[in-house]
Design a protein that fits this description.
heterodimer, A: 501 residues, alpha/beta, Rossmann fold, 6-stranded mixed β-sheet, 17 helices, disordered C terminus, B: 330 residues, mainly alpha, ABC transporter involved in vitamin B12 uptake, BtuC, two-stranded antiparallel sheet, globular
Chain lengths: 501, 330
């Protein structure tokens, strides 16, 4: 393999007012390889990539791409030079066709008129070249997230690309879609395209990476071949210390049934889900993306209409019509979509922490008590923030998540539902949140935990409820659980009646 | 706590830079026209801006909640004409509505505020439950309220009773005009609601991210309705003051375009149209800045059209500055 690098970034410094996000880091990418960037959130991976493709300007440093020193002013010039980025949050134009989205901003023209025939023809050629099964005339908004991502990749490749950057591309994909993505990555490699891959998922990283570079707190730590590294070694490089057990599961006594759901339904998304939840128990929800797990807890929490079934707490039937009602009955929901319906970005850390609990502070609001309560929980949960008044949007994902956990703990719920509690947050914060959930269960709270990471469900849950296409396909005891069994239920491979227990 | 005592100067300056603008304007004007600082002129300035100021303390809530209210001017017209019709000398009141009577001043005021509250509730319910963009919903309410006020009385209503006019023309301690007192009271109530109550905190959250607010157990619909009720009540109070100050009410011109001045004041005062950002002190400053500009340009002999051009530039400039300030931090 050629030892020449397609991209060499050295001594990159990026300063924001008051923060030094990058402290002279480097990155060397070989052509035709998958180069993974690793580091906790806030380590500077995304900032480095933004400096590369011209979203942000590095304060100082050198970028040598394809043998020449470059500094892109915007993403368009980066793309034209052959560097594309597929962002974590896709930004398609949902009302336009797939074909339009591929050519967005650079429509081929015949004189002043857009050459639609050529657009469509080249789009089909492109999809064929990549082996994608996509209809160029489909409306973008009708595609699944996975398909949209394929379109983005096709778009990137269409620029005669040498480097494709993928920022957490698999966070919204199902296992089969991930396989498909990996196949495309292999194809890209075969075409001598380098892929810069950002992810937190260890198993993926070791499957596809050739090289791995680790960053920590804006500093370059090391670059090594993937085969020279192990998960433990990588984690200790990332956090700068040896990690304890990722899943500090403590066996705690399971109490009485506190919560019961019978034949819960919500339209077509949730069909006849029934389960019991005990004090001190962690009930895991497993299943593929789109299996209806989030919808189930949203129905319990009053965020979507309940079209059938009953909910009981301590034997009394609850009639929950809104989150407000659910909170009154001692239920909390840490949602999956942290930015969409979790944080209020403009508000401060303390205001976000107190948001669900304002009723406690009377009229007029007791500001002193609010301050001490917020400070207490921020400290308890080890939230890293400059001050309590810092807007929460300035915090890293993991710290935002901890503030949201604080928000629910302040309401002192009996039942806490956590939906993908560790998605997109770094390893350190992840372990802290796991420990916290376990501790809450130990205090006698009942917990429902949705997770798409099987390891997390295995590590944390006492029982695992598996869903497939809106239906519950089984509840598995911790002792009987195996990856194969869960996948069987999750793919609907087992008759629904055969719930193993 | 020790930390709380320490003033964060950088933040303080960034949040209050608008007061610097006001001070610069005042200093520059008083050098150019020393008469600007005369008691009579300043009193006139305050009296003139009080009504729009009261409306601005209402409309800022709608903007904070990521909405807008285009209704206040027309609501003020409707309320002023109805209230005026009840505080005329008896013989005139009867002429306007068959069998009509005079109401005691306090009853007429309460009636006016109730009208405002009802209109606000209707607008709020429409916006909260149908998800019609507030711009459109309140454009509708503006047209309807203006038409209703013209239907209520085809001619201007004048000769209002002196007891009624006291609420604007009267003097507290013989010095401070009542209209300014009302303005200050409304400022205090707004500040209290915004910073010391759950309602205020809820609206910040709704403006910042309504989905997150809902999940945190906030009844978004109820709070939005209250916002538009409050906004309309402020407009109604503005309408009452307007009638009391001028001693008459003309259904077709009273309060015309006042909502735009109120929106401008709230905007210049740093209320963000992307929702979730608002400080009452900023809005107060916005009201004063626009007042000083109005007053100052007249004193400098700048003509009306030029004044509006300058005002337009200031509003656009303020928002451009605001957008820069708020996006830079991402």
């Amino acid at each position: 393999m050629s030892q020449e690098y397609v991209l060499e970034m050295s001594d990159i410094v990026k300063e924001f007012p008051g923060v030094k996000a990058l402290k002279g880091v480097e990155l060397k990418v070989r052509p035709g390889t998958v180069h993974t960037l690793m580091g906790e959130n806030g380590a500077g991976k995304s900032t480095l990539m933004k400096c590369l493709i011209g979203i942000q300007k590095p304060t100082s440093g050198q970028i040598i791409y394809d043998g020449k020193e470059v500094l892109f002013n915007n993403t368009i010039s980066a793309m034209n030079a052959g560097i594309s980025m597929i962002h974590q949050e896709l930004s398609p134009v949902p009302e336009r066709t797939v074909c339009d989205n591929v050519w967005l901003g650079r429509y081929p023209k015949k004189g002043p008129i857009i050459d639609k025939a050529r657009m469509r023809r080249e789009c089909i050629e492109l999809f064929e070249k990549l082996g994608l099964e996509l209809d160029p005339d489909e409306k973008m908004g009708n595609l699944t997230v996975a398909k949209m991502q394929m379109v983005e990749i096709a778009k990137a490749v269409s620029y005669d690309t040498k480097i494709v950057i993928m920022d957490e591309p698999t966070s919204a994909l199902t296992d089969s879609e991930v396989e498909y993505l990996f196949k495309i990555i292999e194809d890209l490699k075969a075409k001598n395209v380098a892929v810069i891959y950002i992810s937190h998922k260890m198993d993926e990283i070791f499957r596809i990476s050739d090289d791995i570079t680790v960053y920590r707190d804006g500093e370059y730590i090391t670059t090594d071949r993937a085969e020279n590294l192990t998960i433990d070694k990588l984690i200790s490089l990332m956090v700068g210390r040896e990690m304890g057990d990722m899943f500090p599961k403590v066996e705690c006594p399971i109490g009485d049934v506190i919560f019961k759901v019978e034949n819960l339904s919500s339209g077509r998304a949730v069909k006849n889900v029934s389960f019991e939840l005990h004090r001190g128990e962690i009930l895991g929800f497993a299943g593929l993306v789109g299996a209806g797990r989030t919808e189930t807890v949203e129905t319990i929490f009053g965020m979507r209409p309940r079209t059938g079934g009953k909910i009981y707490k301590n034997g009394t039937e609850l009639n929950i019509k809104s989150p407000e009602g659910a909170i009154k009955h001692g239920i909390g929901l840490l949602t999956e979509d942290r930015r969409g319906n979790g944080i209020v970005g403009l508000l401060s850390v303390s205001e976000n922490a107190l948001l669900a609990n304002l009723k406690e502070y009377g009229f007029p609001l007791k500001h002193a008590k609010m301050g001490t309560d917020a400070a207490e929980y921020v400290e308890k949960l080890n939230v890293k923030t400059p001050t309590l008044d810092t807007p929460i949007k300035n915090l890293s994902g993991g710290n935002q998540q901890k503030v949201l956990v604080a928000r629910w703990l302040l309401t002192d719920p009996d039942i806490l539902i956590v939906d993908e509690p560790t998605r997109g947050i770094d390893v350190g914060a992840k372990a802290e949140i796991h420990a916290l959930i376990t501790k809450l269960a130990g205090e006698g709270k009942a917990i429902i935990m949705i997770s798409s990471e099987l390891q997390e469900v295995f590590g944390m849950a006492d029982r695992i409820l598996v869903m497939h296409e809106g239906k519950m396909t089984g509840i598995i005891d911790r002792s009987d659980a195996s990856q194969e069994l869960i996948m069987k239920y999750a793919t609907g491979d087992v008759a629904q009646a055969g719930a193993a227990e | 706590m020790k930390n709380a005592m320490k003033i964060d100067w950088k933040k303080f300056v960034s949040q209050n830079s608008i007061w610097g603008v006001l001070i610069v304007l005042v200093v520059a004007l008083s050098i150019a026209r020393p008469a600007f600082l005369s008691t009579a002129n300043l009193k006139g300035l305050l009296e003139g801006e009080s009504i729009k100021g009261v409306m601005a303390f209402g409309v800022m809530w709608a903007i904070l909640a990521k909405g807008i209210d285009l209704g206040p001017g027309a609501v003020a017209a409707l309320v002023s004409v109805v209230v005026a019709s009840f505080v005329q000398p008896a013989e005139l009141a009867t002429r306007l509505i068959p069998g009509g009577t005079q109401l005691p001043v306090w009853a007429a005021i309460i009636l006016g505020i109730l009208i405002g509250a009802v209109i606000g509730a209707i607008v709020g319910i429409v916006i909260a439950y149908t998800h019609i963009p507030p711009f459109i919903a309140t454009l509708g309410s503006q047209l309807i309220c203006r038409a209703l006020s013209k239907m209520y009385s085809t001619a201007p209503v004048s000769n209002l009773s002196d007891e009624f006019r006291w609420i604007a023309k009267g003097k507290l301690f013989g010095v401070i005009p009542m209209i300014v007192v009302v303005f200050i009271i409304m400022f205090i109530i707004s500040a209290f609601l915004l910073t010391q109550t759950r309602f205020g905190k809820n609206i910040y959250a709704i403006g910042g991210n309504d989905q997150a607010a809902r999940v945190a157990g906030i009844n978004v619909e109820k709070n939005l309705i209250l916002v538009y009720v409050w906004c309309s009540v402020c407009a109604a109070i503005g309408g009452i003051l307007l009638a009391a100050r001028t001693g008459s009410s003309d259904p077709s011109t009273s309060g015309l375009n006042y909502e735009l001045d109120a929106i401008a004041a709230a905007t210049v005062g740093g209320t963000s149209h992307t929702g979730g950002i608002c400080r009452v002190s900023g809005v107060l400053c916005g009201v004063l800045i626009l007042g000083v500009i109005n007053n100052g340009l007249v004193m400098l002999g700048v003509n009306d059209n030029m004044t509006n051009i300058i005002k337009g530039l200031i509003i656009v400039g303020a928002v451009a500055f605001d957008m820069r300030k708020n996006t830079r931090k991402i």
